[in-house]
Amino acid sequence: MIDVESALKFYRVMAYVVGVMLLVLCVGMVVKYGFDDDAMVAVVGPIHGFLYMVYLVGALNLGLKVRWPIGYLLLVLLAGTIPFLSFILERSVTERVRRSIAATA
């Protein structure tokens, strides 16, 4: 179970990091298209893309360890692309995994 707990911790950190970076990227998009300045998107876009890939690995690792259904796993994987969804889903994932840990203990 320590393996699942460490995977959950990594997932939670990455969910918040990717969620914040996505919000910053959204602000950058407003600046790019509203004020014709693409500097913010040029910097934040690749950073978010890299961090999203790390998030995908962490979420997939956790999902496989806890054996999520494929539909739920896909929802968690896509959460890093929809503003605010990674924050909301992180709570659901944490509760679900903790219930799973408690059931097997």
SSE layout and pairings?
Blueprint: H1 2-35, H2 39-66, H3 70-78, H4 85-104
Helix pairs in contact: 1-2, 1-4
Strand content: under 5%
State Rg.
15 Å
- Report the total helices: 4
Q: Helical percent range? A: over 70%
Please tally the β strands and state the result. 0
- So what's the overall shape? elongated
Structural class: mainly alpha
Sheet with the most strands?
none
Distance between the termini: 8 Å
Low-pLDDT regions:
none
Integer average pLDDT: 93
H/E order of the elements?
A: HHHH
Question: Can you give keywords for this protein?
Answer:
105 residues, mainly alpha, 4 helices, 0% strand, elongated
Could you give a quick summary of the protein structure above?
This protein is mainly α and 105 residues long. Helix content is 87%, strand content 0%.
What features would you describe in this structure?
It is elongated and about 55 Å long. It has 105 residues and is mainly α. The chain has helices at residues 2-35, 39-66, 70-78, 85-104. The model has no long low-confidence stretch (mean pLDDT 93). It contains four helices and no strands. It is 87% helix and 0% strand.
